[in-house]
Amino acid sequence: YRSIALLANHRLLSTEDKTKEDAIDAKRSESAEPIESTFESIHKVLKDKSLSQLLSEASNEVQAIGSNTEDVTQWQVKQATATRDQTRHSVRPKTAPEDTTVVLFPGQGSQFVGMGYKVIDSPHVQHMFTIAKQILGYDLLDVCLNGPIEQLNRTQYSQPAIYVTSLAAVERLRETGSGDVESCVATAGFSVGELAALVFAGALSFEDGLRLVKIRAEAMQYATELVPSAMMTVFFNADARINFACNAAKEWCLRKEIEPEYAVCSVANYLFPHCKVIAGHEEAISFLQMNAKDFGIKRTKRLPVSGAFHTSLMAPAREVMREALKQIKLEVPLIPVHSNVDARVYNDVDSIRKKLAKQIVSAVRWEQILHTIYERPKDTKCPKTFECGPGNSLLSTLSMVHGIARKNARHIPV
Question: pTM score > 0.70 for this model?
Answer without folding.
Answer: yes
